[in-house]
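Curious: explain these tokens?
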Amino acid sequence: AALNCLSCICTPDLAQDLLSDVYGMLNSSRPYVRKKAVLCLLRLFKQWPKGLRLSFDRLKEKLNDENPGVVSAAVYVICELAAKNPKNYLALAPQFFKILTSSSNNWVLIKVVKLFGSLVPLEPRLAKKLVE
């Protein structure tokens, strides 16, 4: 509940001060907490963009989480971030391709296909790989 509240009341100062706490929750033993922390990061990044550079590596790790809910949250956050500047997320194409070929979650698959739609104009070889 606290992570949901933080997402709603977040200001740039709160984002800067609480990013390290949310960052730590990404390694929680409880999948629900990891998922909520990932989702909260999007709001923190919108309020304090510098936080993205500080915690992006841990966010990328969540694409390989053993819990499908955490993976779904990570896909959502990265897709939302990539909507503004897809070029920054081109390096994640192999991870998203793995998700595309292994996930059975339709919502995640739709998000990944939309992301690839914005990445293909930047990397023509990606289209050939997707057709295979």
Notes: The two ends are 43 Å apart (CA to CA).
